[in-house]
Amino acid sequence: MKIPLEGEVRKPSKTMAGVTPLTVVVEPRKCNHGTCVYCPGGEKVPQSYTDKSPAVMRALMLEFDPLEQVRVRLKAFRVMNHPTDKIELIILGGTFMQYPKEYRDSFIKACYDGLNGVNSKDLEEAKKINESAKHRMIGMCIENRPDNCSENEIGEMLNYGCTRVEIGIQMPDDELYRKTNRGHSVRDVVEASERLKSAGLKLGFHIMPGLPYSNEEKDLKLFKEVFDNPEYRPDQLKIYPCQVIDDSPLARIHQKINFKPYDTEKTQEILEKMTMMIPEYCRTMRVMREIPPDRLVSGITRIDIRRDVEKNLRNKGKVVQEIRMRELGFNKQYFKEIDSKVRLKVTEYEANNGKEFFLQFVNKDNILFGLLRLRFSNNGFMKELEGAAIVRELHTYGKALEIGEKGERGQHTGIGKKLMKEAERISKENGFGKIAIISGVGVREYFFNQGYILDGPYVSKTLI
Ligand code: SF4
Question: Tens-of-pLDDT digits for all 464 residues of the chain?
Fold first, then answer.
């Protein structure tokens, strides 16, 4: 790694959205249902990954030791001059909730210990220490399958401090699921989505256009359905067009079934159309898997195609609603001067048997300075959420700042507090006597200072 000059931030886009994402990888293990037709890995590296992706290479070097992975990554962020006080932990590899409980529990505890710099006696102690540690876990993302999101499993994830769950839905169609050996149904996706959101979690979908037995028309129709149908409506997406990767079942059968992935031009065209369908409450976290070219049997090698998609849409003057393209940090490259006069915009929509309020602070150019997701649903199974409105996300934008440091715009300028006040007002107006927030362990202090108390895996407040 090239050592940065003094004060130079290497790869600034990493922390542009306001948090520092730290990826850890679990040890290899095969999924219980078998292998989805396009999925590599599972023997020496976790299923669905190759040994050439940077996070997996680091994990391999460290024998998948979670504590060491956290320590090494923190050190790298420091060298690259990124802030390390607000960490979002991303747990990669296969289906986390299918790993034995003992492994999961010790993995998560070790991640907290790595951030805290001390060995705790158990997970509870590790979480407690992290509430005021130097490197605080402000969010945790777990990759999972839709059929591993039972009430019990969600309870366990919440206990770990998880704030976001990503499930692979590829394209929601039972026939495609059967033909690609997904091993779950559309119903599983619908039920998991409702349970996850009603427990206050942020919901991410992994989408895969270009599957065998699909086509462009079907892909676009199903993608539209993901937002038209209130049974889906995710908060976030990762879009991974199907590729033929060696070591996957598809590599063995693609010629026999006459399968060809979309070429670069078609992929870009479809991604542009999809981007235009994404509503204002959804963020595209990533486009394209990081598959090294020598592992591709067939498929495109342009892992940075997203840049061309975004550039093309901008050049065509398209008005994109998707979150990332509207974020403050992202837009600094396009605007010499960003107007910091912001207004509050509230959008209501039905989703997963509940009502969502999407609150945003935007300026006249629709640039996003902060957002909050508030949900009303009567179907929560967490006892702490009985009769409570739940805030599933509070995010202010701008470069990640150290805790306590004062920002010019976005983070630490009071936008978070204003969003919370508005969420409390809306909840009260709608007859809720309590508001709960899902908060990473390391953000609890922020809410304690605003009168919230610890309430199971949440922080909450009585509305009077
Ligand atoms: S569920 Fe995910 S990790 Fe498991 S085989 Fe399918 S694609 Fe691979």
Answer: 555 555 555 555 555 556 899 999 999 998 999 999 999 876 788 888 888 888 999 999 999 999 999 999 999 999 998 999 999 999 998 799 999 999 999 999 999 999 999 999 999 999 999 999 999 999 999 999 999 999 999 999 999 999 999 999 999 999 999 999 999 999 999 999 999 999 999 999 999 999 999 999 999 999 999 999 999 999 999 999 999 998 899 999 999 999 999 999 999 999 999 999 999 999 999 999 888 888 899 999 888 999 999 999 999 999 999 999 999 888 887 777 888 899 999 999 999 999 999 999 999 999 999 999 999 997 678 999 999 999 999 998 865 444 444 555 555 568 999 999 999 999 999 999 999 999 888 889 889 999 999 999 999 999 98
User: CATH number, domain at 351?
Assistant: 3.40.630.30
Distance 227 CA to ligand 1 centre (A): 24
- Look up the domain containing 407 and give its range: 335-462
Quote the ligand 1 centre to 2 CA distance (angstroms).
35
Q: Is 72 inside any structural domain? A: no
Residue bearing the CA closest to ligand 1, atom 3: 94
Q: Of all protein residues, whose CA lies closest to atom 2 belonging to ligand 1? A: 94
Token digits of residue 354: 């509940």
Query: What is the residue with the minimal CA distance to atom 6 of ligand 1?
Result: 36
CA atoms of 205 and 144, how far apart (whole Å): 10
Q: How many domains does the chain have?
A: 1
- Which amino acid is located at 183 in the chain? G
Q: Residue 392 falls within a domain, yes or no? A: yes
Listed residue (21, 28, 162) closest to 93, CA to CA: 28
Tell me the β-bridge partners of 205: 167, 237
Any residues with Cβ below 6 Å from ligand 1, and which? Answer: 31, 35-36, 39, 47-48, 94-95, 145, 168
Centre of ligand 1 to C-alpha 243, Å, is 14
Is residue 80 assigned to a domain?
no
Whether residue 140 lies inside any domain: the answer is no
